[in-house]
Amino acid sequence: MAHPKRRQSKTRTRKRRTHDKATAPALTRCPNCGAWHVYHTVCGECGYYRGQIAINIED
Ligand SMILES: [Zn+2]
């Protein structure tokens, strides 16, 4: 198998990992019920997406 000739330095590894950063999810208000939900996803409170019912919330 292909194998690296030299071990990568700690500095080089850490420099690469400076770009590994988690981003906060884009939240928005539901236009139907006003609850916070993740952008481009169905609202967890009322089941609406793009102005119409996408899933039925049983309770
Ligand atoms: Zn909603």
Helix % is 10-25%
Mean pLDDT: 92
- Helices and strands, in N-to-C order? HEEEE
Uncertain residue ranges = none
For the biggest β-sheet, the strand order reads 1-2
Beta-strand level of the residues, as a percent range? 15-25%
Name the hetero compounds present. Answer: zinc ion
Tell me the major beta sheet: 2 strands, antiparallel
3D shape: elongated
The separation of the N and C termini measures 56 Å
Can I get a quick summary?
The chain has 59 residues and is an alpha+beta fold. It contains one helix and four strands.
If you had to describe this structure to a student in words, what would you say it looks like?
With 59 residues, the protein is of the alpha+beta class. It is built from one helix and four strands. The strands form two sheets. It has a two-stranded antiparallel sheet. A two-stranded antiparallel sheet has the order 3-4. The longest helix has 8 residues, at 10-17. The mean pLDDT is 92. It binds zinc ion (ZN). Residues 30, 32-33, 35, 43, 45-46, 48 line the site of zinc ion.
What tags apply to this protein structure?
two-stranded antiparallel ribbon; 1 helix; binds zinc ion; 59 residues; 4 strands
Give the secondary structure arrangement, pairings included.
Elements: H1 10-17, E1 27-29, E2 36-38, E3 48-49, E4 52-53
Antiparallel strand pairs: 1-2, 3-4
